[in-house]
Amino acid sequence: MDADAGMDAGVGADAADAADAGVGTGQDAQGAGDEAAGESGEVWDVVVVGAGPAGSSAAYAAATAGRRVLLLEKAELPRYKTCGGGIIGPSRDALPPGFALPLKDRIHAVTFSMDGKLTRTRRSKHMLFGLINRPEFDAGLVAEAEKAGATIRTGTAVTRVEQHGAAVPDRRTVAVVLADGETVLARAVVGADGSASRIGAHVGVEMDQVDLGLEAEIPVPETVAEDWKGRVLIDWGPLPGSYGWVFPKGDTLTVGVISAKGEGAATKRYLDDFIARLGLAGFEPAVSSGHLTRCRKPDSPLSRGRVLVAGDAAGLLEPWTREGISFALRSGRLAGEWAVKISEAQDAVDARRQALNYAFAVKAGLGVEMGVGTRMLHLFEAKPRLLHAAITGFGPAWRAFARITRGSTTLAELVRRYPLARKALHMMDARQAAARNGAGQG
C-alpha cells in the first residue's frame, strides 16, 4: 500500500482535517429535516463552522462587534490537533487582548542541520517564539470568543451550507445543515473547518500545494527534557522541500517531519530515521498522527454569496514552512469583521461587495506573504545547502530569521527591502521559467 494511502486510512489525515473543526466527512445526503429551520426559527447574524484558531478568531471578532454569533464544532473540546505548536510574533499579535498564552517553553536557540549533518546552533538573547499544546490553546481561544458573547455548540457536525432552496427563507439567509437534520439559519457564514473543508468545497477553493506532515508526541525523562529546554531543532530533510523539527514542551518532545504528498513511504522513513538519530527511538510516543496541509491557488475564491472561508479551509498558510497558526488567526479575524458587514447587507450586490473587500484584505496581506513563501520553497527545494549555510553562517540571514519569528518583519518585507534577497529570488524565478519553457518545447 502507498504510504500516503496508509496514512489516510490508518491515521485518517483527510478525515481528521475536517473533524478538527466541525464538518462531517460523509456524503451530502438529503434529510427529512433539511427543509425546515430549527424549531425556534431564529436567524443568527454570523455562524462560524469550526472552533480552531481561525474559527475562534472569527467568532471573537464578530461577537466583539455586538453581533449574535454561533460557533459550531464537531469535536468535544479540548481535542488533539496535529501541529508543532509554534507561536511566532504574527500569531501573538493577532490574539485577543490580554490572552494568556499557555506556553510550554520559550525558545531562545535553534539548532539547524542538513539531514543530521552540518549541525550548528544559533542563539538569541531575546525569545524567538513560544511553544503551546493545541488542545489548551484552542480551548482558550474558544473561551475568549464565548466571553465576547458568542454561543458555542460542540459535538455538532455540519454536512453542508445552502444559499438557495426550500431550507432558505430569503436571499439574505444561509442555511447551515447539521448532520442530525437540523438547519441553522444565518445572515453570514464563516467556514473554518480544516483543510478538507466542506465549506471550502461549497465556495470552490482550489489547492495548489499539498504536503504530508507526520508527528509524534514523545514523553521523555527529565534529564532528556532538560537538554532540550529553550531550544528547538530544525533539520532540512532528504526529500525536496522537506524538513523535520523537535519542539520541547516540558516532559514531552513534539517530533515531526513534512514533505510533499505522494512521498508517503519516504516521509515515514524520514520520521523513523530522524527519531532514531536523535536517540529517541526507545521512548514510546503518546500520540502518533498525520495531517495533510494544503495551500490555495493564488486565484482561488475566498467567498461565495454570504459565505466566507478562512484558515486551513481557505488554504491559507505559509508555503515554505507550512506555518498555519498565524495565518488562521489573522484570516479568521478578518473573516469575522467582514462577516459582520455581510450580515448587514440588504441585497446580493452589497453582500458581494463586502465579500470582495474581505478577499482583497486577505490577498493584500497574507496573499503577498504566501507568494514570497512559495518562491522561498522553490529556492529551498533547489538549493537547500545554500539556505542552510546562509542561516547558520551569515549573520544578517540569522538576524532576519529571528526578526521574522519575533514578528518584527515578514519574508515579503525582507525581499522588498533587501536587493540581495530580491535578486536571489528573481534568479530562481528565471531558472524555473527557463526549465518550464524547455519542458514545453520538449
Care to describe what's here?
By secondary structure, the protein is of the alpha/beta class. The strands form three sheets. Strands 1, 2, 8, 9, 10, 11, 17 and 18 form an eight-stranded mixed beta sheet that branches. It has a seven-stranded mixed beta sheet with strand order 6-5-13-14-15-12-16, sandwiched between helices. The chain has helices at residues 3-10, 13-20, 53-64, 89-93, 134-147, 198-203, 222-228, 264-277, 325-344, 348-382, 384-393, 395-406, 411-417, 419-441, and strands at 43-49, 69-72, 86-87, 105-107, 109-114, 117-123, 129-131, 151-153, 158-162, 174-178, 183-191, 207-219, 231-236, 243-249, 252-260, 287-296, 303-304, 307-309. The chain is globular and about 65 Å long. The longest helix is centred in the last third of the chain and has 35 residues, at 348-382. The model is unreliable at 1-40 (pLDDT under 50).
Radius of gyration: 22 Å
Distance between the termini: 34 Å
- Give me the number of helical elements: 14
Helix/strand/pairing category: alpha/beta
Low-confidence parts: 1-40
Helix share of residues?
40-55%
Mean pLDDT: 89
The biggest beta sheet, please? 8 strands, mixed
Q: What form results from the Cα inertia axes?
A: globular
Question: Could you tell me the strand content as a percent range?
Answer: 15-25%
The number of strands is 18
Question: Could you provide a short overview of the structure?
Answer:
With 442 residues, this protein is of the alpha/beta class. It has 14 helices and 18 strands.
How are the SSEs ordered, and which strands pair?
Elements: H1 3-10, H2 13-20, E1 43-49, H3 53-64, E2 69-72, E3 86-87, H4 89-93, E4 105-107, E5 109-114, E6 117-123, E7 129-131, H5 134-147, E8 151-153, E9 158-162, E10 174-178, E11 183-191, H6 198-203, E12 207-219, H7 222-228, E13 231-236, E14 243-249, E15 252-260, H8 264-277, E16 287-296, E17 303-304, E18 307-309, H9 325-344, H10 348-382, H11 384-393, H12 395-406, H13 411-417, H14 419-441
Parallel strand pairs: 1-2, 1-11, 2-8, 5-13, 11-18
Antiparallel strand pairs: 3-7, 4-7, 5-6, 9-10, 10-11, 12-15, 12-16, 13-14, 14-15, 17-18
